[in-house]
Amino acid sequence: MREAHLDLPQVTRLLVQPSGTFAGLLQPLVRPMTFRAGFVAIVGLPNVGKSTLLNAFLGERLAAVTPRAQTTQRRLLGIYSNDTAQVVFIDTPGLLEPRYTLHRSMREEALSALEDADLVLAVVDAGFEPSLDWAAGFAQSIRGPTILCLNKIDRVEAPGREELRARFTNGAWDAVYGTCATNGEGVPELLEALSGFLPESPPLYPVDELSDAPVRHFVAELIRETCLEELADEVPYAVAVRIEEFRDRESGRPTYIEALIHVERESQKGIVVGAGGRTIRKLGTRSRVKIERFLGRRVYLRLRVKVLPNWRKKTHHLRVLGFRVPAQEN
Ligand SMILES: Nc1nc2c(ncn2[C@@H]2O[C@H](COP(=O)(O)OP(=O)(O)OP(=O)(O)O)[C@@H](O)[C@H]2O)c(=O)[nH]1
Ligand SMILES: [Mg+2]
């Protein structure tokens, strides 16, 4: 077999042409830059702003955010890429004492993210003392690099901020940052610091990808988020949303989406539907507007409500609804 070879003039030509095959081989010499990539688990108590931070890092409204605790129920990947790094964030449910099977599922989702992460970002509400107390205990339970994020720093006056920094600069954390996730203050600085802690590695995901979750996941979350915003008391916590149909139609016609809102009891179904169907129409309209913004196209949204008795306590229901089933109950 004849060996392919290049003679010297050919090589010289390739080297001087940036588009030549050899130019690629020279790149490491021309750009001695290190690329870093890895997983960062965002963990903390419920409602401290973990998902808001994820959205702020990405500059996209990827994760559901509401003023209520326990908004996030499962892990969500959010991928940030630039020329020098790829930070793969894992947003997690807030850590809480489990009261029923869904809670145990949520806790396992959060704890498993810690195992998968190269770096942990522990988030606290800087203006809420119990959240700060939690940080001290958490720092002791973690091996590997951990960064503390004092989020909601806007709730603390300037002198208090310095005190906080001093209080947590105690060797338990690899770094301490203050952020306001809602207005972006401190977010770029924290993002840069996180990148620096990641191992040298090529990108783990395509650099133009924002998440590995399917579009259906985001659509279901937008509907659940709307339920959390619009329904009172305990009702929204009994809501699970599943997309039954998602169909793009010929040009000019809106995408057809049919979603099933599961609740635990008949009485909750009555509340979600509302008198004369008023509540479900409102949920439908508000969800549709969000979904259209997210997808960038017109949508026809059909919502239906179904009772799945005590689904939060039943492993087989959790499985059908796509939740992680806690290990002991599998
Ligand atoms: N003032 C202030 N509010 C914030 C900040 N970050 C988030 N919030 C608000 O805090 C609330 C909770 O935010 P989330 O991002 O849903 O909190 P989370 O930690 O993901 O909550 P769970 O998913 O329930 O664990 C929302 O109303 C946010 O708008 C912040 O920096 N300052
Ligand atoms: Mg969240």
Structural key phrases:
binds guanosine-5'-triphosphate; GMP Synthetase, Chain A, domain 3; 2 domains; 330 residues; disordered N terminus; Rossmann fold; binds magnesium ion
3D architecture notes:
This protein has 330 residues and is α/β, with parallel strands linked by helices. The protein has two domains: 36-197, Rossmann fold (3-Layer(aba) Sandwich); 215-329, K homology (KH) domain (GMP Synthetase, Chain A, domain 3, 2-Layer Sandwich). It has eleven helices and nine strands. The strands form two sheets. It has a six-stranded mixed beta sheet with strand order 2-3-1-4-5-6, with helices on both faces. A hairpin with a 7-residue loop joins strand 7 and strand 8 (255-263). It is globular, with a radius of gyration of 24 Å. The termini are far apart. 35% of the residues are buried. The model is unreliable at 1-28 (pLDDT under 50). Bound molecules: guanosine-5'-triphosphate and magnesium ion. Residues 50-51, 71-72 line the site of magnesium ion.
Sheet-strand content, in percent, reads 15-25%
What are the bound molecules? guanosine-5'-triphosphate, magnesium ion
Distance between the termini: 59 Å
Largest sheet report: 6 strands, mixed
- The Cα radius of gyration reads 24 Å
| Residue-averaged pLDDT | 90
Provide the CATH superfamily of the largest domain. P-loop containing nucleotide triphosphate hydrolases
Q: Low-confidence spans: pLDDT under 50, at least 5 residues?
A: 1-28
The largest sheet has its strands arranged as 2-3-1-4-5-6
Protein structure class:
alpha/beta
Quickly count the helices. Answer: 11
Number of strands: 9
